[in-house]
Design goal:
The chain is α/β, with parallel strands linked by helices. The longest helix is centred in the last third of the chain and has 19 residues, at 464-482. It starts with a helix and ends with a strand. 48% of the residues are buried.
Length: 586
């Protein structure tokens, strides 16, 4: 154990010594409790006093008869009282409402994904289309959850059919409340037992990799659950959290980590590195980064220098230890250089969620057609700031809950009008620079807001418009994979060009995307009127229509054989259907 590294916040592998480890003479348990008067191990229906070790702030005990699968917890004595806690570094936990830690063998599973691990990258010049999902409510196994390994049988064929490159899983670290979706944790090293064991999760990730699909994990380095068996007042005092409630309690009623403490830095860095190293996750999405940049996420309270330093150190250290990973920030602030390297003055992320683009786009499509002339530049504004960061375009879980309505339901108008608008909007998302993320259910036109207790409404696919919409999203995803112009130069000036963004009265837009080998042109009519449109393309000699959002096969009214465009003397002449888009290849 590197004590200096632990206390100065330089460790990324504290879990390799802390927690419960299987050895030749039994299982050795270790915990950090500097303010405790004493610590006992509760196991095998016994209370076994633990011994102080190292500098006296750590406790250790080897139990010869302990084996994999056994439950245990620590009894922390402080001021003539005690509280029983799960192991902060425990590799497994019981299913709620039980909360003891479980002995796990992290070496029991042998990965077979070495080829994937060698060639993986952060996808900066490659396609990155992420399917965001909550494992417990994607599909159910009857009334129960699928285990991690069982889920692989259903999820992998689906992701391949749909054309997603990566899957992003909402937090899997153990949490007591289903309604928190994993964002209020008690076990930062314990895959939630809702879906099985550590070994079964490893199998899921391994099989994803063997099928060419990357895996991203949502992690929460900001706060933790208040439950008294967790990290809260772990050794009788505030060990992981702030001692003062004005900064110690988050807006969610949870405890804020005190990132200025080296022990806390080492804990969190080791936790994130643990998921990358031991489970082979390809990247992480850090939740609520704004709360790390500013005190309580409030810009008026100023920057939190300690947490900014923590972010920089963690991101740099993770990148040094894990080849080809991607680090993604969920950040709603205008803080600069989030996606710049640390040695260039940045925070060191690869991507930042473009929440401004998401809100502007959805607000535009929620507006009645008659109001879109005034809101025309909601759809052009994103390119005014896009070069500031490396943005990822999200339609995430946060936008389909809490009365916000689902993505399809947000579209203006009645049931029949919502589908053509959603098809056109998703084509706009496809041709807009930036990597993509779509939450589960969006692809089938979900009308019911997401509920973590219920599986997705797969019966919607028996309705023609939903089935056609699903076919459409799959076609978009595969077009994305097939055409380098849609991803190769996302973050280069020459990758994107407005061909026309001055048709305010007609709600027409034209975009060109470029790569080293091809050029694509997209034309949109977001009004409710059919329009004749002429676009100047003087250097184009031949053009092919790749996709029309209004084709009958996708639920529209245009037959694929219809010639609704022509190329004449350097002009692209189109008859644009209401709420439609057309994608051409030069």
């Amino acid at each position: 154990m590197d004590l200096y590294g632990f206390y100065t916040g330089a460790m990324f592998d504290a879990y390799q010594w802390m927690g419960a480890h299987i050895g030749e003479t039994g299982v050795t348990f270790r915990t950090f409790a500097p303010n405790a008067d004493g610590v006992s191990l509760l196991i095998l229906d016994r209370e076994l006093p633990m011994n102080k070790t190292l500098n006296g702030q750590f406790y250790e005990l080897t139990v010869p008869e302990a084996t994999v699968g056994m439950c245990y917890e620590y009894r922390i004595y402080h001021h003539n009282r005690f509280t029983d806690h799960c192991d902060p570094y425990g590799f497994g936990m019981e299913l709620r409402p039980n909360h003891r830690s479980i002995v796990r063998d992290l070496k029991a599973y042998q990965f077979q994904d070495s080829a994937w691990m060698k060639r993986r990258t952060n996808c900066m010049d490659r396609p990155l289309n992420i399917y965001e999902m909550h494992l417990g409510s994607w599909q159910k196994n009857g009334a129960d959850w699928f285990r991690y390994d069982e889920l692989a049988d259903h999820l992998i064929p689906y992701l391949k059919e749909c054309g997603y490159t990566h899957v992003e899983m909402l937090p899997l670290s153990e949490h007591p409340c289903d309604e928190s979706w994993g964002y209020q944790n008690t076990g930062f090293f314990a895959p939630t037992s809702r879906y099985g064991t550590a070994e079964q999760l490893m199998e899921l990730i391994d099989r994803l990799h063997q099928n060419g699909i990357g895996a991203i994990l949502d992690v929460v380095p900001v706060h933790f659950a208040l439950d008294d068996y967790g990290l809260s007042n772990y050794d009788g005092d505030a060990l992981y959290e702030y001692p003062h409630s004005d900064v110690g309690v988050s807006e969610w009623g949870s405890c804020n980590f005190m990132h200025s403490r080296g022990e806390v830095k080492s804990f969190l860095q080791s936790s994130v590195n643990y998921w990358l190293q031991e489970y082979h996750f390809d990247g992480i999405r850090l939740d609520a980064v704004s709360r790390l940049i500013y005190w309580q996420g409030d810009e008026s309270r100023g920057e939190n220098g300690n947490t900014i330093a923590f972010l920089k150190g963690m991101n740099q250290g993770l990148r040094e230890r894990n080849k080809g990973i991607m680090l993604i920030a969920e950040d709603s602030t205008n803080y600069p250089k989030v996606t710049e390297p640390v040695d260039a003055g940045g925070l060191g992320f690869d991507y930042k969620w473009d929440l401004g683009w998401m809100h502007d786009t959805l607000e535009y499509f929620q507006s009645p057609a008659g109001e879109r002339t005034q809101k025309y530049h909601k759809l052009t504004f994103s390119m005014m700031y896009f070069r500031n960061e490396k943005y990822l375009l999200p339609f995430s879980h946060d936008e389909v809950v809490h009365g916000k309505a689902t993505i399809l339901q947000k579209m203006s108008g009645d049931y029949d009008d919502k589908f053509p608008q959603a098809r056109a909007m998703y084509l706009y998302m496809l041709v807009h620079p930036g990597k993509k993320l779509n939450f589960m259910g969006n692809e089938i036109g979900h009308f019911r807001e997401w509920d973590e207790k219920r599986q997705q409404d797969w019966e919607l696919l028996s309705y023609p418009l939903h089935d056609a919409f699903f076919r459409y999203i799959k076609r978009l995803n595969h077009l994305y994979l097939e055409h380098s112009a849609l991803y190769e130069k996302d973050y280069e000036d020459e990758g994107f060009l407005w061909l026309d963004c001055g048709q305010e009265d007609r709600c027409i837009y034209a975009i060109q995307r470029n790569s080293g080998s091809e050029q694509l042109i997209a034309v949109f009519n977001f009004s409710d009127q059919q329009q004749h449109y002429v676009l100047s393309v003087p250097d184009v000699e031949k053009i092919e229509l790749l996709l029309h959002t209004g084709w009958t096969c996708y639920g529209g009214t245009c037959r694929e054989q219809e010639e609704n465009f022509s190329l004449e003397s350097g002009e692209l002449i189109c008859d644009l259907e209401p709420y439609s888009g057309m994608l051409f290849q030069r």
